[in-house]
Every structure is written in C-alpha cells, then in structure tokens.
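Reopening this one. Same input as before:
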Amino acid sequence: MKLAITLFSILGLVVTVLAEPQIGQPAPDFTATDISGKTIKLSDYKGKIVVLEAYTKECVFCQAHYKTGAMQELQRELTTNGVVWLIVDFPNPIGGSQWHGWPEAPDVRKTPAEARQEWADRKMAVTDWIIDWDGSHWGTQVGRRYAMKTTPEMFVIDKDGKLAYQGAIDNFQYVFSANPEAIAINQGAINNFNDSIHQKMLATYGASGKMPVPMPLDERERAALSWDPRKAYNYVREAVRALLASKPVPVPETKPYGCGIGRIYYY
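Same output, byte for byte:
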C-alpha cells in the first residue's frame, strides 16, 4: 500500500502519514468549503456518481485540457447525465522553484468572486468548486484524504460511495512515453501559453521592477500543450459510462500525470 506523507511546519515539523484510498473501498468522506462559503460533504451526494478533479489554473497540463475545451465537454457530458463534478483547487504560488531569481511568491488564493469569474471565463460545467486550503496549507481538506499527487488528477466514486477510478484523465502520458515524436508540436499553442504567463507576471510583479525569469517548458510540457485531449482515450469518461451501464470499470487505476501538488510528497 502506498503512503502519502505530508510535511509542514507549525513551530517545527509535523508529519502526517495517510493511507492512499483503494479501488473498490469506501471513498474517504470529507468536509470542505466551496467558493461561496458553503460547507459540503461527500456524503451529501450519496446515491450519485461523483467526479473529483484536482485543479490548478496555472498548471500547463490543466491549461491544455481547458484551452482545447476538452475538459468542459467532458464536464457537460457527465453532469448532463446526473454526475456530480467537484473541482478541488490547489492555489499555486508563482514563485519558488517555478521561477529563477524570485523566491517569494504572492498569495494567489482566489476570492469567491475571482473563482466565479474563472468558472465563467473557462465555461466550466461543474457542480461545485472547492479551494483546498485551510488558511495555512494546501491540500488539507481533500488532497490529503485522497493522496492527490498532481493536477489534473481524477477520482470517480460510484453510487455506493466506493472509489471506482483514480489516476490520469487520459492516456497522454502513455502515448508520450511510448513515442514523444508521435505528438506534433503546436508552436502556436505554446506561444499562447507563454504569452499568458508573461501577462500575469507583468500584472503581479511589473510595478516592483523585479520580474522573475520563467523556467523554459520541458519536452513533456510542450507536448501536452500540443496534444488534443479530445482525441485521447479518456479514462474518466469510460469509467463513468461503465458505471451508468452497470458494468465494470474497464481501467480502474492509472498513474496520474501533471503538475506536482506542492505540499504533498509521495513514496
């Protein structure tokens, strides 16, 4: 059994060890707060299929799914069929290891108004939005309970409250690992991503005159931005379709890929 070890500092070092949830076993319940301040629990959705999407706006891999509209299409398809879709948002400071020469990151936790605007701008078709932050650390309400590793990472919970799928949203990592050259590079998509990051840097740091230098995208990130998720094998879609048809989930578990969630380390 894998273990998730969360490290954080409150007058010293505290280590919490949590077992990773198992397929076919009851999904960990949680109590969290949505962007409107409402308390929600997984148990509120008993009798429904629930999808959890680990999400960070700034993540290259999340951007790839939303820029193409693939994620929104999947959300609409599933929620139209009565599925509950919950975003689990991890604030991602723009600083530290992501940027050279600027270790101090701004506070990027969203206000409810900012989250609602992002929801509208990206045309999301989700049920609710959780910002997974307890006031001092990320991933404390839902992330640790599900041992979330990356954004995006997906979890599907069946109507009986059991974990039916966990892992990657699609087979991008498999295709890329097998043959990176199979994914034709889309320089326009890469340029658009870099431009959007530059604009955010100007808005955040421009007045200070201390602009950080972004680390260049690696080969996998460039491929992700060039990949069309709509043509992929989508593990979440297939899992939910199987559950709706009362059939076994064809692929119940895969290794997630994406941007690492900063406060959680895995062994």
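So the earlier flakiness isn't reproducible anymore. For the record, The longest strand covers residues 3-9.
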